[in-house]
Amino acid sequence: MPREYVLHRTRTALGRTIGQPPDPAPPVRLRIPEIDLEARIASLFAEIRNLAGKTHRAASPADARAYVAALVGERSAVASNAPFLRECGIADLPTVRSGIANAEELRALCADAEFGITSADYALADTGTLVLFSSQQEARMISLLPPVHIAVVQSGTILSGLDELLSREPLPAERSSSMVLITGPSRTADIEQILVRGVHGPGEIHVIVV
Amino acid sequence: MTGAQEQKIRQTLDDANLQLAIYTATGRLMSHRKAAVAEDVLPDFQELRTQANLLKRHAIENLDHYLEQFESQVVAHGGKVIYARDGAEASEFLIDLAKKKGARLMVKSKSMTTEEIDLNERLERQGIEPVETDLGEYIMQLAHERPYHIVAPALHLTRYDVADLFTRKLGVERETEIEKQTKIARAVLRQKFLAADIGISGANFLVADSGAVVIVTNEGNGRMATTLPRIHVAIAGIEKVIPRAQDLAVFLKILARSANGQHITVYTSFLAGPRREGEIDGPEEFYVVLLDNGRTRLLADREKRQSLYCIRCGACLNHCPVYRKVGGHSYPGVYGGPIGAIITPQYLGVTHDPWLPFASSLCGACAEVCPVKIEIPKLLLALRSEVVQAKLRDTQSRIERLSFRVWAWAMRRPRIYEMLGFMGSALLGGEGWIRRLPKLLSHGPLGAWLSQRDLPRLPARSFRQLWRARRKAGEN
Amino acid sequence: MPRASIFVTCIVDQLYPKVGMAMVDVLERIGWQVDFPERQTCCGQPAFNTGYRDEARTVARHFLDVFRDAEYIVVPSGSCTSMIAHHYAELFQNEPEWLALTHRLEPRIWEFSKFLLEVARVEDVGARLERVATFHDSCHGLRELGIKEGPRRLLARVQGLSLREMDAAEECCGFGGTFSVKFPEISGGMARTKIDSIQRTGADLVVGIDVSCLLQIQGALSRAGLPVGTMHLAEVLACR
After folding, report:
1. CB A173 to CB B89 under 8 A?
2. ipTM of model
3. How many helices (H) and strands (E) does chain C have?
4. Cβ distance of B64 and A7 shorter than 8 Å
């Protein structure tokens, strides 16, 4: 059996025996700086803009809705089932489809939509990153297939960075089969190292903090 | 070295455009890295390197434990783990799976491990169509070439090469604008993503406490390949396992920075098992193939097992003056540059390409930048010693062996040493330069030296003679 | 008068004796008595780097024997210094007696520029040279001994000398011992990359702390017919 073969050879190479407990692991290293909310928002925005993402600070859910409405205009959009999008009234915009729970239907919609609108579970201030767990509320495709991704984030979810995220979510797999970190628009530099945005994922990203 | 390898090296050295392309591209990656790990940007970079090294060491020294933990966590989340002793077994699993599921088309996210086992060729032979989806890898697949660089597969091609390739292979009109070329690839690959039955990915990390596969990409192809097809198969070397999800706080900070200076890649996917109850999308089946393919052999060497710490950032390639001269296709095996020079001989055996560990000036630039602190020059030296101990039987090796024996004998006999000096001085002494040798003598090391550089004539008197003369003068 | 033993290295002894003499001049000028143990030959690095560890050990034992009682050992080479200070221990890991002697000598081995700055504590040796120079960082000195600013500080005190940094100062010159003759085309290519960078500075002199690198750079400069000279740091500091 390959399994036994590989494990046996591994143990033999290391001089270990079946079931032998591991040596004590190096302690977890997480450094969480104290940064106030305003500074976190400022850093998040600066990082996203650095990556050619767009940012908007919405004073209210209604403001967020107005901003999204202006962006989307008459064009087609798919919104996730995040309750926050509903609260903002974004799910009810005329050209926005939302409330889809069927993967095939969602896939067909996402393949054609101009915009994918999601919320985010967290945002990371120091790198300009959005964190999305796959769930009933958030499908993976919405932030992936349409050429433009709009994320509407609650200011309270903005963390200082990766260390704080992993301190809050030490075992992301307990929560979802998929946690994805998104930092700026999809990009490549595979030809002559010239930067091109929008390869397979969205080429444009808008982050709205409410 | 085989004739083909020698020819490839010479070709690369003689191609001025290619030389410039490699030097510029790697130089740019170097300066981006430098900016991203600068003291004021990431003050604890050196500490992170140390921590990464400790974590990798711990994971490797307890690898069996973490593999089993990883496996049980994958199973707990509804996935399956398959062990493969070699490339044939890994491919067999995929081929069987494809047959069972009636799958014909597989989309692939960038993976050096699948390159290592020639997965694409093996699948194609069974009538399965594997499609590379990373832009650089896709270009390489169309060109039927191996990736030129771990993180920049098509580094050696220009937009004009790509234009020709797309016209020839995709039947599109010749397009030399890079942005439009990217759009062409996007359109073709989008259809492949939507139609594929199985998505294949590598893994940047396997997280033991979570049973998760972590994949980083910039283009989004990693997400596409693991979201759209019904089945996701990750293929990874057993050494990719790290103990805890929280350790990603160390590794993700140094991986992209070391590779190309990004603080973090655009997409980092943390994938643990198939789609769960209630989740809207994602694959229905989730498999992880854990590949040995020479790794347990490598593991048996206490000192050299640190080669398995590698996180494939490619920094050692960018900083290697030899890689920057010979490029990515001059190395045997798929891993080029310094990391390839230490891994390949260990996977294939040191006598397979005995010249490889010697093709380094031991400048140490690789070790200086390695984010997990692999002591590459030290391992190159260890491998050189192994090659010597293997006592190769070709004439050149025999002559070299004899020469060093005689040399060592002479070096501990100061009088003989001095006499050899006299002889050298008598033969090659004088003023000015030696520029060429009579043809008869042009085959040895002196000829090799003079093929590229001049050699100053040996001085009439050695230091020790000057010293003695000076002392004498002082006494008088 | 404090006393320093010098290990001039085989390559200085045979190819660049004037570098050794320059080092002696500088050391004496700053008030040190110089001792040259005449039985010295080589540190063993060529064999070690080519994989011949037994032969390297033979030569290393000879070195340790010759210098066993030296108080300070000054070496005009970062590479040879590093061989003794960092790699002997690996060679003798299974030979306790030689390992003990290695450990005893390790702290006594000094690369020339480091010796000036950290033992003799001199920055200005009263040198004078009217040239435009660029400094080449030798790999082993730079990466194994951490020699970066030291030689530049010493050069900054040389009257008349102006120093211009090259963009590829830290890039290997391509010498690499037997590498230079096992892979002459690659080694030669690396040397040409180096001299391109040297030329961009407009300097007429390359200064380094290892004659092996300078041999490579000088040979490539000569082959290219370029009017740029090379000098070891000791030679520059000996000028007045």
Report:
1. no
2. 0.98
3. 14, 8
4. yes
